[in-house]
Structure prediction request, 367 residues.
Amino acid sequence: MKGVILVGGEGTRLRPLTSRLPKPMVPIVNRPFLERMIGWMKGFGITDIVLAMGYLPDRIRERLGDGAELGVTLTYSVEDSPLGTAGAVKLAVGHLDDTCFVFNGDILTDLDLGAMLAAHREATAKVSIALTPVHDPTQFGVVEFDAERRITKFTEKPRREEVRSNLINAGTYIIEPEVLDRVPAGQYWMFERSLFPDLLAAGERLLAYPSDCYWIDIGTPDKYRQVHRDLLAGRVHAHLGRPRGEDLWVGDGCDIDESASFLGPVVLGDRVQIGPGAVIAGPTVIGNGSSVGANANVTDSILWENVRIGDGAIVSECIVANDSRVDCTAFNAVIGANVVVESGNRLDHGLRIWPDRVIQRDTLSFG
Ligand code: GTP
Prediction:
């Protein structure tokens, strides 16, 4: 079966992590998010996969190639300028000859796609939309439906007094080929704001598929950290690596000083070095080739590849992208790629540091 994944967005809310890397390629426990997503789709027999791209497409293509290593067939469609979710699918597949899945490329979920497809077929719907409950729906697209799960209304970002349901569009759709005929070729067109309301107005059957499966949009630093907490706590199944004792997973070729200590769930990639007296408290993930210096302390953080945490540094609730070095105290900071923060600084308050910056000794002091 065919599946289209929408991966064209710039991921602005996740900057600076997405300044050089498309959001679907950010690592989730040391593996690009998109690889995990494709593995999940493959589990339901979706192996003919089209990636609808726009932003930094080469970063995706270089890594995933033709999909053979993942056991799927990947093809790529690149927009010159963003065409919106429906416009992007139209460009990517042209004319469909069978039912097709469409996915937002920034949602981690364990939704049962087989059950959703069975419900879609039983209802002979033109479109089925997965729904998920959220605490505060005012920032999302709310979907209302009747007792037969026939969708009756879409409301984008409702005001609080307008809220009639806490079920929102979860970014997974099943579409029948003919619905794409309503999407003008080469024009910016959205599923949520244009195509679905048009189909509703035309009296077509749109099936609501609510579910209480695991669901999270990885698109902000807080959500990105939450995904890691959930995976390391086992709230959703994922392969974390090779377990060593309880709550510790260690990759190949690591060099861990025997006086270092680990508390709570911690995942180390390959070739990670942990110095004497270092304390790593979970949930924490340390990427391939990274190192933590003597007596340093890393808590509730995600370090990407080739990150250096200096001797005595304290890093808590941080995300640090590839090739960066932190020699200071950092609390709740998001540090882009190839950054150096020298000792004597204090990073705080959700500070975001753009790639390639060097912050010299004793220049930043927040908190
Ligand atoms: P923000 O800039 O942080 O809002 O992130 P984003 O650019 O990814 O936008 P958003 O989260 O709203 O997009 C949801 C999904 O749709 C993501 O997987 C995007 O990659 C994808 N997407 C949004 N617009 C387009 C588009 O015009 N073309 C393509 N191909 N994908 C899109």
Observations:
- The helical segments are 33-42, 57-64, 84-93, 113-123, 191-201, 221-232.
- The mean pLDDT is 94.
